[in-house]
Structures are given as C-alpha cells and as structure tokens.
Design goal:
Helices cover about 45% and strands about 10% of the residues. The protein is an alpha/beta fold and about 450 residues long. It is elongated and about 80 Å long.
Length: about 450
C-alpha cells in the first residue's frame, strides 16, 4: 500500500513562499539528517523510501537511526507541518520543486560502485517528470564515481521523461560533508557547501536552499563536485593511516605519539593547510627525501611495518617516471628544461627530481639544455650533488655535465628544442611557453585554468 503525501501540503515555492519544496529519496543516514535539517530551515520536505519502518518513523517525527539532535529536528518539522514521508517516489517528485537523491551506492562485486539504486531512482524520477510541466531540479547527494551523474543518472531521466537536462529540468551534484555524531551541527555550520550543476538556474535553486547557513557557496562543474567528495574521504583515510603509522613508530621508542601529534596539528601554516596539496611534480630537496628514508630505515630496524610512509618514495618515483614517459612519447631528441632547483627562487639542486629526469634522458641519448634564473656557471653544482652520493649515486655522474647544459637566457634554451619541460611557475616561463608550438610538459601548473592553457601544454596531473 502506497503512503501518500498529505494533500495540498506541497505547492511550488513560487506559490507558497520563498522556501523550496524538497523530496528526499532514501531515508538512510544522509537522507534522514537532510530531511530534518532542511525542514529546520523552513523548507517543506517529503522523505521517500521503500522501507515502511523508516517511513513510519519520519511521519511520526522519530529518527530511524541514532544521531544527536535528529529526533528533535524531525519532531519539530512534523509538528510544523513541514515533514512528511511516502513510498510513492513519483508523486513526491510531482509535488516538490527539488529532489535530493541519497540512496545507497555500496561496493559492487568487482570492487567498484553498485549503481543499481541510482538507475532505478532515475527511471522513476523520469517517469514523474514526464507528466510535470514545472522546472524541477534533481540533486545527487550520493558518493559516486566522477562522471556518473551525467553518464548514468541524466540519460536515464531523459530517456524516461522525454525531456532534456539543463533545459526542461536541472541537475546538480551537492556532496555532503557530515560527520556522524555531529551531523546536525555540521549541517548548520558547514565546512563548505559545494554545488555542481548543469545550468545556472539549477545552481541558483540549490544555492537558495543553503543561503541561510552559508554565504560562501562554492559553485563548480558536476564532475569536479563528484570528485571532491571522493578526494575528501580518501584524504581523511590517509590522515587516519598516517597518524596510526606515527603511533606504531613512536611506541617502541617510548615516545608519546599523542604529544607528538598534538604539536604537529598546531601548525596550520604548513601541516594543516593548502600548502603542498596541489598536484605537481615529485617532492625533492635536502629534507623530504632524506627524512622519509630515515623514518623508513628506523622503522625497519625496530621491526615496525609502515606501509604508507615506506611507499611514499615509490609513489614519488612514479611521478618522475611519468615525466620521463611523457617526454619519450613526444619523440624529442633535444629537450629544454626550464627550472633546475627543487624549489623556485633557490639554487638548491639537492635531490631535485628534475635531475633524475635529465639523467634518464641523457642515458637514452637525448640532448638536454637548461635554464634556471638562480643556477649559473658559478653555482657549486658538484659540491651540492656530493651531498646525495649515497641517496642518489646516479646524480654524481650528472654533476660535471650539468654546467655545460646551462643557458643564460630561457629563450636560448628553448630555441631549437623538440620538447620543453617546465618545473617552475613564473611570468618569464609563462610568457615564453605561451609562444611555443612544440610539446611542453608542465609540472608546475603555469596556467591556473585549463581554458587558459595552450594546447601544446600538458601536465602530469592535468
């Protein structure tokens, strides 16, 4: 038996008031919390699920799961006439302006993402939109592989409804960043609100919902919004793993791991900040490679297994190898390198990853010329590279040859080259690269947007 929404409770927001009528499909953790919180902002909400127990709970103003504050939010919403629940998805869509989709996307047998619930819901939404004239916005809230919204959800809705996304109805991806246990507080004080949409109208409708709690809404593309959700969670997993490995390292030494990490997290300039968190080239210099090796060696001596830390250099080397492979694919026989030091504005060549690339290219018979504003014929190259004689013995052979590759002017370096590698982002290199037609491997992100990036330019991570 279908649980019908209460009659006349949900009219388009343009008719009733400035609030939006919302249907929430899937009354699990995210859906139930969203239902209570959206109602607390004054929006009318219909919760939709196939589980009669969840429907009954929501209708009665009771939380179908344990979450601090959720019972109160649902009780108040029902008492105010703002919350209802049903198993009739199509009617709920017809009676609302916006549909949030929060159904489960469990791991599939092959380790990927099971999208069967997404497909089922999309078809039923499409069936509802077929008989609805008003503009409707479908908002994905599930964790799904990037591209799923536009390649799976949208085609199913369009096929079933006979309508066109971005024209007849809007589609958005609005990832949630709610921590279980404090989800209500997180909703009302969000770390960020991200909206990816097919069109400006859809984005505006969704943004309108969140305006009372966030005045800095981030609007982007759907694929970026989908990816942000995955990246956030993988980063949190990386943080947990890193902290646990530090604990395993500290214990046999008798060091208080919590005291160490309490100090570590107080640094919000480097440790907990955007610094370093941009795709680019491999790490290098006199500190990071050496300390990673030292910690890995220390752990091995104590018999402590640190899979994440001990494989940092493996992943780092993969970045170097990919740069080499990108040059190889150009077929270049003469390569210009713009930027030699591991960090722009210094002449520090110690374990600069580009030197590994140069050494590999030379070994393959490729001619290399280079420019770096801070590295000149007077730079003590051999003295610096002797510092890494045990860490990177291959670079000792490069030291006496490097001075001969240097060019005083960047334009002279690229003249006659078949390909260019850029490791430093500065205006000199940016203006020069913009004039080039040969392939450019840019590991420094010279151009802030892909739209501004010349077609000849490619990065490892963009």
């Amino acid at each position: 038996m279908l649980h019908q929404p209460r009659p006349n409770a949900y009219l388009p927001f343009s008719v009733v008031d400035s609030h939006v009528a919302v249907s929430v499909v899937g009354l699990g953790y995210v859906g139930a919390v969203s239902t209570g919180c959206l109602a607390s902002l004054g929006h009318r909400v219909i919760g939709v699920d196939v589980d009669p127990v969840k429907i009954a709970c929501i209708r009665e103003g009771r939380a179908p799961l344990h979450e601090a504050g959720l019972d109160a939010a649902l009780t108040e919403g029902v008492a105010a006439g703002l919350i209802d629940a049903t198993d009739d998805l199509e009617q709920a869509v017809r009676d609302t302006d916006v549909t949030f989709v929060s159904v489960g996307t469990p791991t599939a047998a092959d380790g990927g993402c099971d999208l069967s619930h997404i497909v089922t819901v999309a078809r039923r939404i499409g069936a509802a939109l077929r008989s609805k004239d008003d503009y409707h916005v479908v908002v994905m809230r599930c964790s799904i592989p990037p591209g799923t919204t536009m390649s799976v959800m949208v085609p199913e809705i369009e096929r079933t409804s006979g309508k066109v996304a971005g024209l007849d109805f809007g589609v958005a991806f609005n990832p949630e960043f709610l921590r279980e246990g404090v989800a209500i507080a997180d909703f009302h004080a969000p770390s960020k609100t991200v909206i990816g949409a097919t069109d400006p109208r859809a984005a505006a409708v969704v943004a309108r919902i969140y305006e009372p709690i966030d005045d800095k809404i981030i609007q982007t593309t759907i694929d970026v919004a989908e990816t942000v959700k995955y990246v956030d969670n993988v980063w949190h997993a990386a943080k947990v793993t890193f902290a646990n490995e530090i604990g395993r390292l500290c214990k046999p030494m008798g060091v208080d791991s919590h005291a160490v990490m309490d100090i570590f997290v107080q640094d919000t300039k480097l440790n907990l900040s955007p610094y370093y968190l941009k795709p680019g080239f491999a790490y290098g210099g006199s500190c990071l490679p050496k300390e990673v090796r030292a910690v890995t060696h220390l752990a091995a001596e104590m018999g402590v297994d640190l899979p994440m830390i001990s494989n940092l250099d493996v992943s780092n080397r993969a970045q170097v190898d990919e740069a080499i492979a990108m040059v190889r694919r150009t077929g270049a026989r003469r390569v210009a390198v713009l930027g030699l030091a591991f960090k722009q504005g210094t002449d520090d060549l110690r374990e600069s990853p580009i030197l590994d690339v140069i050494a590999a290219l030379l070994a393959q018979g490729v001619e290399v010329v280079a420019h770096d504003a801070a590295v000149t014929a007077e730079t003590r190259i051999e003295a610096q590279l002797s510092y890494v004689k045990h860490a990177a013995p291959g670079l000792r052979d490069l030291a006496p040859r490097l001075a001969g590759m240097l060019r005083a002017d960047a334009a002279d370096a690229v003249a006659g080259s078949d390909a260019v590698i850029v490791t430093h982002a500065n205006d000199t290199y940016r203006k020069l690269v913009a004039t080039l037609t040969q392939p450019v491997i840019d590991v420094a992100r010279l151009f802030r947007s892909r739209a501004a990036q010349p077609l000849s330019v490619q990065g490892i991570g963009w």
